[in-house]
Phosphate-binding protein (Streptomyces fradiae ATCC 10745 = DSM 40063), 376 residues
Amino acid sequence: MKLHRKTGLRATALGALVVSGALVLTACGSDDNASPAGEKKTASASNVKCDDAKGQLLAAGSTAQKNAMDLWVKNFQAACAGVEVNYQAIGSGGGITKFNQGQVAFAGSDSALKEEEVAESQKICKGGKGINLPMVGGPVAIGYKLDGVDDLVLDAPTLAKIFDSKITKWNDPAIAKLNPGAKLPDTAIQAFHRSDESGTTQNLGKYLSEAAPADWKHDPKTKSWPAPGGQAANGSSGVAAAVKDTNGAIGYFELSYATASNISTVKLNTGAAQPVEATTENASKAIAAAKIKGTGNDLALSLDYKTKAEGAYPIILVTYEIACDKGNKAETLPTLKAFLNYTVSEEGQKVLSDAGYAPLPAEIATKVREIVPTLS
């Protein structure tokens, strides 16, 4: 299948803030140091409001948003003299741990805080708690390498069986039925998954659990790979590299990794009239159906993984910045607020438009913009 590189998102009915896509929403857990996005736009320093930002700001977490963070940090530091933002892409799980230990001012996570993690955060957030602030959205692509097959369609039940080691050959009847006329070889399927705790893994699990409940019986809440068999690799970059180098391979990672490495991606038969390709625009259509399930200043989202809307790509994730609503350290609070104000601003979102991320719905972005200045 030929990867169509989308270099921008057309304005949608969402009134989108474009969150781009090079950010490989690779979620939670790896030391991805590669930046797969290629040339990226930079923001005009005059459009960044530094306010009282000063000194060093430490953060850690999701590798999915690493490329976005690289852009934001570059622009913010260029505009705000003497400020250093240090984001460690160690995975969502690692980021939350560091946040709840008071080692970082905020964490990036591809899944919202669990109840026990919120309770733990109250020890650090004096008089407050950790809250989820959506910042980046995007599609989780299913990448593959299969010599002679350029266009591949799969559905949720078939994907579930592949990743659960129930379908092991590429010419399996279930795959053949979805790809009439394709010359599928009798090649063994080599399914790659994340070895680290990952929000990307969790979002794929939620999709399979909801869209193919009869075929995916594993815990949809776990960030660790739950199924038997398959091969493990660290981080989205590791999975992407393994798929690119292995004939017969299939794996999952943020779209920007597929784009950067020219990896073919699966189209999904969702029940819509046509199979849906993994693009930022198609992911935006699915994210538009998200509902806020958090209360108060917490903006945790409920995503619709079962959508059958035309052109809506359902394997999506949203990366949150997790911060204290109250009880932030006085020495880092001004920089924390200034930086997050920038990342969720229209300018901060637009610089990502060529990176492969899906736009946050305007309604959600507006709410985040209202909450960040109230952090204390």
Notes: The chain has twelve helices and 13 strands. Residues 1-43 have pLDDT under 50 and may be disordered. The first strand starts at residue 55 and ends at 61.
